[in-house]
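ok posting inputs for the adenosine-5'-diphosphate job
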Amino acid sequence: MSAALAEPRAGTAAAAAPPVIELRGVTKTYGSGAAAVHALRGIDLRIDAGEFVAVMGPSGSGKSTCMNIVGCLDVPSAGAYRFDGVDVGGLSRRQRALLRRNFLGFVFQGYNLLNRTTALENVELPLVYRGLRPRDRHPRALRALATVGLEAWANHTPGELSGGQQQRVAIARAIVTEPRLLLADEPTGNLDTERSREILVLLSRLNRERGLTIVMVTHDVEVASWARRIVRFLDGRIREDVPNPRFEEHRGEEPVRQ
Ligand code: ADP
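and the output
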């Protein structure tokens, strides 16, 4: 693996740093011949450190396919993907897995927490995979839980938490490794308006205060209104890529409750 990815890098990138995401001419075709599905038909996308991008578009427009490539879960049929300056196409499956573990955080609609373990243990899990000892893991996981306002819930299992709290645990798990990029796939899809707002306040704060780069897939224009930039997919292409005029509406929103 390239030296650039050998060690996790802390903090935000300097001005001259490469983009976090750079897709050039990316296509993805499933199947072949008459049965071929052209899920992506040539995507060019650059996302720099510190951005907060909402990805929108109707069902079947290629959002998930693109996010799977960006998240290093899949590879393009053609075209290039550079993550933090590293050509992901040149990495082995194992190297891509390491890249995911060390540099990416994922948040899903369904939280994806382990139900029999506590919030703290869920948040510690990425650090277990990194080989950290308990005495090194605990304080970091507790800090991540404090960031999402759930330090007091560390010893509760997901079943004892509300949906909104579970998603906040999932966000703590995603940021405990200090990733270069947070990928959130419909993070508020299972939540009511108030709980959704709490999640969006949290993501917004992580972006504004820590410079965390976020890419969030959503169907909901209200959810997308929290992002700095909106990218719209249609039929495997990017149809629109614009700054979000509503971004400043949410400045100074109430912090997250316990
Ligand atoms: P979205 O996330 O915007 O709903 P997807 O990326 O899931 O869109 O799908 C884009 C297109 O690719 C759709 O036509 C979908 O049916 C197709 N597709 C997605 N994944 C697969 C797959 N594993 N095999 C075959 N076709 C797929």
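notes: The longest strand covers residues 37-47. Residues 101 and 126 are 7 Å apart (CA to CA).
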